[in-house]
Each structure stands twice: as C-alpha cells, then as structure tokens.
Amino acid sequence: MILIIFGRAAQFILLLLVMRVATTYLPPEEMGRLSLITAATAFYALFLVNPVGMFINRRFHAWDALGRAKYYLKLHWVYLVVISVIAAVSLGLLNNVHAFGFQFNTAWLLVLVCGSLLFNTVNQTAIPSLNLLELRGRFIALTLGTIGVGLASAFLLVRVFGTTAEYWLLGLLVGQAVFALIGVKLFFEKLQPEVPIEMPSRAHLQLLFHFAWPVAISVGFSWLQTQGYRFFVADSLGLVALGLFVAGYGISAGLMAAFESVLTTYFQPRFYKRVSTSSLADQSLAWNKYAGAILPSLMLVTFLLVGLAPELTRFMVGPAYQSASQFVVWGVLAEGARVLAGVYSMSAHAKMKTRLLLLPNLLGAVICIALIWVLAPVMGAHGVGLSRSLAGIGMVVAMHYMMIVVLEMKLPYRLLLKGAAMGLVLLLIATAGRWVLGGTESLISAGFLIIATGLAFLPMFYWLLYPFLPRHDKVL
User: Fold this and answer.
1) Structural domain for 143, as ranges
2) DSSP3 helix / strand / coil % (the chain, rounded to 5)
3) Is position 475 within any domain?
4) Do 144 and 263 reside in the same domain of the chain?
C-alpha cells in the first residue's frame, strides 16, 4: 500500500504539471478546442472499447490460469484496429458536414482520435494489467513514464510549432505510444505460456456480447453526461467559456481521479479475485469490503477539495484561468457522484448482470442534457455545473435501489459518519488557516495552507482505510 501511495503521489504531481503547463501555454479558446477533441475520442473509447476492456478485467485471471490470456489479448489488438478504422470513417464524414459546430482539420482529428484509441487503449490495457498481476512496481514506473514523456513531448511541440490543442495532444500521444509498446512486452513476459486454442466459438462471443452491450449503452449515456455536453456548451456559450469551465472542473476531476486510482489500484485486483467464484456470499462480501474501503474516504476527500478550492486553483492552472476556481465545487460534486456510481456498478460486474447499468445511466444522461438546455442560457457555466451535479446524484440514487436487489449490500454507515465528521474538521482547518494567513493570494501562502491541511488529512485517510488493510501488505 505504501508503494501505491507514493507512486500515485508522484503521478499526481506529474498530472498537476501537465495541467499547469497546458493552462500556462494554451489560451482558454484552445483549451475549449482540446476538450472537444478529447470528448470525440471518449465517445468511441467508452462506447466501443471500454465494454470489452471491462470484460477482459472480469475474465483475465481465469484466462491466464488456462494459458489463454495472450491469445485473447492479441485478438483485442485486432479489434482496436477495426474500431480505429470505424472512427476514422465516421469522424471524417461528421467533420466534413460541420457536425461538431466547429471545423477541425480532418487529418489532425483522425491522427489524434484514432491514435489515442489504438495506443492509449493498449497502454491502459497492458500497464494496469501488471497491477492485476500485483506487479505494482512496474505498473507505477510505466504509468509515470507515460505521463512524463507525454508532458515533455507536448511542451516541446507547443513551444516549437505553436500553442494549439493539436500539438499538445500529439505530444501526450507520443508518451502513450512509447510506453504502450514497453508495457505490452513486459506484460506478456509475465503471462502464463500460451496454449494452442481455437478461435472463440459462437457461445464465447455471445457471452462477451451479453456482457458488453449493456455496458456500451450505459457508458454511451454516461458520455452524454460527462463529455457530450461540451459540444452544446461550446455552441451556446462559446469556446472561451467552455475552456474556463473545463479547467475549473478539471481541477476537481484530476484530484478525484488521483484519489480513486490510489484505492482502485490496491483494492480492485482483490475484488476481481474474490468475485471470480460463483458464490453469492463471496461476491457480496467482496463488494461490501470494496465499498467500505472507498466510500468513507470519498466523503473525506470531498470536504478537503471543497475547503481548498481557491488555493488548488492558484497552484494547478495558469494566470489566465484563475477565475475557474468558481467551478471547482461543481466538479467535486459531480465527480464524487461518478466515483460513487462506479462503486455501485461493480456489483453488476460481480454478477455479470451489466444490464442493470442501463436505466441509471439513461436517467443521468436525460437529467444532465435537459437541465443544461434549461439552465445554461440563464446561469451560464454555473448552470452546466449544477446540471452535472444533479444528474450525478440522480444516477447514484437509481443505482442504489437497483443494485440492492442483486447483492446483499451493507453500506459502512459508521465509517461514513466518521468520514463526514473528519471532513468537517478539515473544512474548519482550511477556513481558519485562510483567516490566520490574511488570505492566500500568493503562491507561498496558498501552498502553506494546502500542506497544513494535507498533513491533517493523511492520518484521517489512513484511519478510515486501516480496517481494510492486511497485516502484511505485499507491495511488489
């Protein structure tokens, strides 16, 4: 666990640098264009790639034990090439008819979107799979290498060729591609020897289809809620407003993702091992432990980010984006709901009943788009943040009442209350510290408050996680 925390801390520092450098050199309009390109990439990745990836995670340990993992992963790479071709054809057609509202250079669009679908997916399949094999040292090293090389490449490209979203994303793609190749080599070396097997039968494909199609529809609805709204915002409020909102929201999203990755890196491999059995009691116990480890800590982190929103903005984004601090709290609420929904969705994965994800994600998408349509013209970007937060809450409520009929769920109410109480203490510490310092307008005072509050956060975080840590933790 210690190795994971230090590794994720280093990853967070690198991601902070990525955001800081991007918002220093890219103007808000280019940040808006960048967010539209990443949203287009996310559509294909979530709708067509993610469901298969979730199936691989669910079946990986069984495949490796039988010596089938290498063969099925090679088929997965072929599938990615097919998806990249589909994306290239459809994107070219959509861009030529101005379907995005803003014209992109078609060649750039195809290189960035298809390149990400191929290399980033391979990167994010091979490297996290090392963690599934509990090779955490290599997993962390390759993850940091991906971000570091991508940041260096992106910085060089925007400084030499121009401060555009295209050059920035191309630089990040370089890091993904280089370490995708390294990750596949190291990952395949650790798999069981490949045994001769036939092509997947119709029964195998039906099993994959029945698992994947509900996930595909669900994440498609999720895309509307988390990414697709950007096209409407760009069209109604403009690229500058979108860029500022994405920057403020991105502060919360990045920090929440860092928190989530620390815990999922450690607890998800154990979850998937426990649910590999057909025992309902074992599957319920696996989910209860997983939820017990994550939900109270999520409560604590939510209070921390709300309390330090102005100071985090001062550190994480460039001078042109300081007004984005007003959107950080919306990001905390919406991303917190996303993490919570992800915890509930693991129960559907445990039971291989992914159709249960359809209605909650549909509900979230409908609420989000409908409210943005009504509130954005009246409240501007704040209407977008409020809509996203309410949609996330609605999705979580729907998931709760649908998933409790699948597994015997026991929410950690006592730990949740502890997390909320400690979170209030952190909020008071941040408020009192800001008053004692006479404000945090300078980087020094903002940094001091972040460090002081963070030092108070760490023992609370450990206290909440302690009941779920084994006595002898294997870190390598």
Assistant:
1) 1-199
2) 85, 0, 15
3) no
4) no
